[in-house]
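Entry 12.
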Amino acid sequence: MAYYEIIIRIVLATVLGGLIGIERQAKLRPAGFKTHVLVCVGSATIMILSELMFRKYYLEFGMTSDPARLGAQVISGVGFLGAGTIIHQGVNVRGLTTAASLWVVAAIGLAIGSGFYFLGITVSLGIMFILFIFNSLYGQFQSKTDIICIKIELLNKPKPLGAIDMVMARNNDKILDVDFINSDLDEIESDPTAVIYIQYLLKLPPHYDPNLLVEQLQEIAGVIQVDKP
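Predicted 3D structure (C-alpha cells):
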C-alpha cells in the first residue's frame, strides 16, 4: 500500500468523523467533535493495519488470514464506548443518539480504512442528513407551545413522587427532563420531613390545558406548591 493511499484514508476518516461530531458538539453531548474524529480515525487505522498485516504475512510466509477480524473487534469495542455516553436521568434516557452515531462513525472508519471511499462518504452524507435535516423538520412539526416547565415543591416521601408520575402518565404527558434543584440532596435524602424541589420539562398532548395539570398536581397529598413559570 502506497503512503499517499494511507494519508488519503486517514484524512478522509478525520473529515467524515468530524462532520458528524460537529452536530453532537453543537448540542453539548458527552461525545462531541474530538470523540467522533478519534473513533473514526482509530477504526480506519485498525482496518489499514489489518490489510497491511494480511499483505505482509501472505507475501513473506504465504499465510492467509481474515483482514476483517480486527474490524469486528472495533464494532464490539465501540459498543462499550457508546454505553458510556448513555445517561439515565429519572424516567428519561439520554445519549442514545450519540451512542448510535459513535457506532456508525466506527463503521465509516472501517469502510474508509478498507478503501471503500464511496460507501464511507455515502453513509456519512446520510447520517448528516438524518442529524441535521431531520431535527429541523421535526422541530417544525412539533408545537413549541405544548412544551412547559413545572416546578414542584413537595415533601421527601415516595408516595407524592409516585402520585405525580401517575398523574402525568394518566394525562399522557411526556417527560422530557427532570431536575432536582436542591443544593443539598445528600443531606435530605434520609429525612422524610425535608422539602425537595423538582423541575419537570413536559410535552403535553395537543390542546391540553396546562392549568388543569397544575390543579391535579396541587391536589396530591405531600405536594406543597406547584409553579408554572
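Annotation: The mean pLDDT is 76. The longest helix spans residues 33-61.
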